[in-house]
């Protein structure tokens, strides 16, 4: 009888562990980027932190958590969720286009690559930017910190929220209409930044 009770306890613990593990998943991958390849990322809900680095390695870490799918239901099983990759001569595209998930991305990308990111709801944070970037968030925020002294062009726009650019010596223009905000900059640099948020704030700092 004791052996049966022990066996049932172990089975219950195993089932509990499997149910918990199915709610969360971690994806890690490393790719090699060629000179001239840019990076494109798209996902519905979550956050992304991007750090530009020397070398040609693209490091990808994604934490995925399933959300509650409704009354009397457990969180979504994410065990079968995979990262969709498309590798072309001039671009690497990464995407997890799935509902009822929260995604937290940490990306280390070669500084030689331009970046294009689209997030439905969430935040984008870029550190040590040394190239061009095009960033779009529906609801959330964008923060970009750069080590470059200047840019050719920076254009920021929010439907509801604030925009700000600091640390550059070129021509800066800002306009605000009740709840919306636009800030643009023209300089003598090589690269450009374009960022747009539907509801939320955008900050660019040197």
CATH class category:
Mainly Beta
Unreliable residue stretches: 1-21
Count of alpha/pi helices: 1
Helix content: 10-25%
Structure description:
The chain is mostly beta strands and 206 residues long. It has one domain: 3 Solenoid (Pectate Lyase C-like), CATH 2.160.20. Helix content is 11%, strand content 60%. Strands 1, 2, 3, 4, 5, 6, 7, 8, 9, 10, 11, 12 and 13 form a 13-stranded mixed sheet that branches. The N terminus is likely disordered. This is Adhesin domain-containing protein. Keywords: Signal.
Spell out the blueprint of helices and strands.
Elements: H1 2-23, E1 24-32, E2 38-53, E3 57-66, E4 84-87, E5 91-95, E6 101-110, E7 115-129, E8 133-146, E9 153-160, E10 163-166, E11 171-177, E12 180-186, E13 192-205
Parallel strand pairs: 2-5, 2-6, 2-7, 7-8, 8-13, 9-13, 10-13
Antiparallel strand pairs: 1-3, 3-6, 4-5, 9-12, 11-12
Which features does this protein show?
Adhesin domain-containing protein; 11% helix; signal; Pectate Lyase C-like; 13-stranded mixed beta sheet; disordered N terminus; 60% strand; 1 helix; flat; mainly beta
Condensed summary:
The protein is mainly β and 206 residues long. It is built from one helix and 13 strands, in the order αβββββββββββββ. It is flat and about 50 Å long.
């Amino acid at each position: 009888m004791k052996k049966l009770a022990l066996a049932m306890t172990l089975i219950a613990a195993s089932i509990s562990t499997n149910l918990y593990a199915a709610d969360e998943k971690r994806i890690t991958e490393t790719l090699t980027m060629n000179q001239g390849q840019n990076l494109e990322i798209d996902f519905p809900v979550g956050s992304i932190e991007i750090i530009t680095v020397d070398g040609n390695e693209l490091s990808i870490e994604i934490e995925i958590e399933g959300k509650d799918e409704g009354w009397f239901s457990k969180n979504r099983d994410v065990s079968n969720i995979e990262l969709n990759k498309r590798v072309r001569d001039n671009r690497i595209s990464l995407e997890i286009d799935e509902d009822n998930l929260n995604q937290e991305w940490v990306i280390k990308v070669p500084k030689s690559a331009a970046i294009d990111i689209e997030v439905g709801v969430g935040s984008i944070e870029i550190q040590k930017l040394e190239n061009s970037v095009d960033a779009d968030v529906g609801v959330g925020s964008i923060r970009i910190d750069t080590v470059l002294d200047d840019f050719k062009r920076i254009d920021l726009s929010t439907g509801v929220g604030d925009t700000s650019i600091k640390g550059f010596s070129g021509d800066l223009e800002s306009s605000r209409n009740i709840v919306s905000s636009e800030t643009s900059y023209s300089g003598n640099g090589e690269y450009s930044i374009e960022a747009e948020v539907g509801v939320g704030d955008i900050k660019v700092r040197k």
